[in-house]
Amino acid sequence: MPRISPTAEGFRAAFRRPSLTLAEISWRWAVGATASALALFGLIEYLRTLPVNNAELLFLRTRQPVLIVQAIAHILRGSLDRVVLAAMLAAIALAGLWIIAASLGRIATVRALLEYFASRRSALDNSSSALTQDSESAEVASNLPPEVATASTSSFSSMIGINFLRAAVVLATIFGLEGASILAGFSSPPSHPQPGLAFFLFLPLAVLVCVAWWILNWFLSLAAVFVIRDAEDTLGALSAAATFCRQRIGPVLAVSTWNALAHFAAFIGATTAVSLPLGLIAVLPGRAVLACLMFVTLVYFALVDWLYTARLAGYVCILEMPEALTAPAPSYVPPTPAPRVSLETTIDRDEPILSDVPGRITSEV
After folding, report:
1. Dist. CA 103–CA 316, nearest whole Å
2. How big, in percent rounded to 5, are the helix, strand and coil portions of the chain?
């Protein structure tokens, strides 16, 4: 069978099965829309409860920055406690909603990918040039392992545990950034303020915290595949993911690197597209500019979800396809030519066996 590229197979799966990307978009955007609506309506309701007297209105109408800041500080005085408490309750509720939605969405997506690559592997076994047809999915589903067939019911609790750990990592990242700001603030005391030095110290600490969050979040998202594929519990999935990364580090890094480059290219393209309406903000009406920005942002988010689906499909391809197919082809080493043996074409007349003197041999003996 011909060798295959997990990265190319992942992009092919995301392209041939757009329902996978739609499933990702559905649960991700549903949680995002809920969070945005909750934040917007919460802010509006909070502003409606703020008391504003005539003196504060007078300061706001002066259009002087100093007076406006004083008026806003006086209006918000004594009400930030309610904002913090409401934000904490909203964050807990949104975290619970995200954990449940992410668990259900990941079960559906990974199960569909397992069926796809099972049919893809069967097609490669039958013919090297055959492609998977959509009608084969139902036939292959009955051939999946029993733990995969029952993953949607038995692995839900394990998926809850995985996503709970991901939410805990986000909370730890927030505390880590706060701790980094506190440590950096020690270098700039009020008696001798040095904001430049404080920022110089805060930046590398923040980068380390964000990199640690990214690695842990990536590892936990990969462990979710083993929860559905092998019906592992939370700790068993983490162990299986660590073993998988150790044994197949080459293909995993290849899939991650190519998808990261594609994500970076998409970010550059979206940034360029956003800069065009912003450059025409003096000519175009404000609503048109806002509509363009929202459209480009939504397209970028959809493309990011598609790339995430392709990356997840690449990981599943590494798991489901034989290792001999996903391993890089060995480099061709030309055979070393045998040393040429020179043939003697002349006759040595001094050889005793070729001597023409009669009786020489017997006399020498």
Report:
1. 17
2. 75, 0, 25
**With 0-12 CB in 10 A as exposed, 13-18 as middle and 19+ as buried, what is 159?**
buried
Nearest-angstrom CA–CA distance, 145 and 192: 67
Longest dimension (CA), the chain: 144
Q: How many CB atoms lie within 10 A of CB 278?
A: 11
Chain centroid to CA 83: 33
Cβ neighbours for 331, distance < 8 A, ≥ 6 positions apart: none
- For residue 82, the Cα-to-chain-centroid distance in whole angstroms is 36
Domain annotation covers residue 350: no
Instruction: Confirm whether 335 is domain-assigned.
Output: no
Domain enclosing residue 28, as ranges: 6-326
CB 6 within 8 A of CB 322: no
Whole-model pTM: value is: 0.75
pLDDT, tens digit (0-9, with 9 covering 90-100), for 21-56: 898 888 899 998 999 998 888 888 887 777 777 777
